[in-house]
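User: I'm new to structure prediction. If I give you an amino acid sequence, what do you actually give back? Let's try with this one:
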Amino acid sequence: MNPQARALGEPGRTFVLASALAALAAVAAAGAVQGSARPEAIPFLERQASANPGSSRTLFKLGRAYWGARRIDDAWRVASALVKLDPGNRDYLILMANASIEKGDYAAAVALMNRQLVQMPDDHAASMVLARAFFRDGRKSEALMLVDGILAHVPDEAAALHLKEEFLSETGRKREAPAPPDGRSAQYRRAEALAGAKRYDEALAGLDRLIKADPSNGDYRMSRASVLYETGRFDDAIAEWESRAALETPDMNAVRRLRDDAVNRQGWDDAVDWQMKLIAASPRDPAGWENLSWIYGEMEQLPGALWAAERAIAADPVEIGAYLMRAEILEKSGDWSAAAVAYEDVLRRYPNSLRAIDGLSYTLEAKGDYPGALKRIQAIEELTAPCVSPYLELHRARVLTASGRFDMAHKLLGGMEEARRPTIPVLLYHGIARIHRGDSISLRTFREQMLALKKSGYQTLTASELARVFQGKAVLPEKPVLLTFDDGRADSFENADLVLKETGFRATMFVRVSGRRMPYIHSAPKDIARWRATGRWEIQAHGAQAHDPVPLDGFGRRGRFLANRRWLAGEGRLETLLEYRARVEDEYREAKRGVAAAASGQRVVAFAFPSGDYGQDGLSNTPESAAINQALVRKNFPLAFVQDQYGMNTPSSNPADLKRFAVPRHMTAGALMSHLMLSDPRVQAKLLLARLWLREGEPARANAVFSELEAMGVFEPRAWADKADALRGGGISYAPRLPGGGSAPGGLPSRVLMP
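Assistant: Good question. You get back a string of structure tokens that encode the predicted 3D arrangement of the chain. For your 755 residues, that looks like this:
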């Protein structure tokens, strides 16, 4: 438990907040108002806080209002109460530090900001508050060096420039006279800034000078290796990382980079070795075992994947993710009975996990328990009503076919064909890299994919245009596609924009609006506005704090922000559902406001759930989280997006649960086009219908369906055996040929594709 929480003796949350309010009311009654920054908001917020003393969000807004009105003592009391309740909250710490500076308690402000910077060393806002505390405390050289460090990373950071002007003005110095340099520290910050700005030669020259002066400094060497890797000098970078991994006390950051490189180049045996070294350093960390299970899964070594998943469960018997991994590995292994037991185990812990119910339905179908499979399909329909996934309808038709209920299967498939719902694929990309061996899809591959889409006649939509379709105000083009990117990443903007300009395509970027962005990864607001001005980029919301994990208990477990109730260390309890709901709703509102501020004039209509999770999969301590998030996201956004293995939607899909397909890094343009064709529910319905006709002894009808598919351009290798059966039934020999010759493509999506 946090020392500050222990010092409180774990008082009740309401008691702490109510005590703060009582003190504030006494001050207000004494007429202690100073200043007039939006004073009209303060009485309203005071009434809100008094009516709902359990709302830390309301109290924080009140504290900011006091600060703006220069009621410093009041702001400090509010911040102090909030920090006691949540000692790690950045916003509370900054408010209290600023108030402490105004009260003349510089040592307290320094301690508060140092606490924050230990958690997040790159937090420039905290660094500027710390600089102000240093300056007011007479430590002026240190203050200037801090600001110079920020400007070395972000030379045009307006707030830091303003603060430096203020400091120089008060010391009677001109801006051209810099603060005394911090020797190697300042040089290192500059080298990192140059690398972030892609001025690689200058960055390497600076790092080489630093290493010559201090050959044993690991930070300098790790940074140099990273620059080498970014410029394609992979062997040199790996040699450095290997030397650091071989130290008597291995550099675990180097081991991670070596593991990541092995994954990037699909060197799975090496990835296993490096991951085992990471596990040896932290054997009780379940994430290490889960990563190992994933690597074994990519290698198709299912016994190893299962063993690692079991070790993850042993490391943390509470966290549900490893239980789901175990069930899915058993399903993939064909051990249907064990898989069914594993899925049931998940559902005992989290009854509404759509992922577990879906997996159980397929497992029961494979076991031949068709009534059980249909029961689980019905459970998913009830949880997702009134919208029904076309893939769920296909699964029902497949189970009906397997159980011999042909008439019902025909009726269901006929209804799908009659509906003729257009399909809306949504593609998801993260970074776009210029090198082929990074953790993002390469620019070359991305360009090939976009050119293939254009050649096939696809037309891009933005999220705003799709929202109008769902509202009945617009119609879809013949072959629509949404191109989406996450996190406001600078490499996506810079590299993908070249291809968007070439193809005439447009894209939607979902941006994080938290102040905790990582420079040179997440774009600054001015850059977001610049890219939007090209007309090729629409900006939508990806959360404010929603990427930041929240504590789940007093033992250090952490979970996803939107899917979990937060552990309140000061009270030794989880949030109530009311408190959880208020925090989540505030998050959606802040995300919406942040996008509106970063992209002035942008209509904010869409939200992309971080990690695609709002509690629907079961990675949550709150069974009600999925329903709460669905209600609140609908209240604030016309559209919301998650990820799945297909990325296909129709106008009858749930607009608050639209699917995106995260394009794998190694997927070729041809494989992507095959995915889009074969994942289309209409194509799947025809493939299933052909199988149904074969089951009923109607090979001619089956062959007619296959001919329709080929006329549509569908060449599904796994359908050829069925087509051969159909033709043989009609007395015709069949030797399948691919268009243009060559062998059958692989890597098709799993589960529903081809019965």
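You can read the tokens as a compact description of the fold. Here is one thing that stands out. The chain is about 60% helix and 5% strand.
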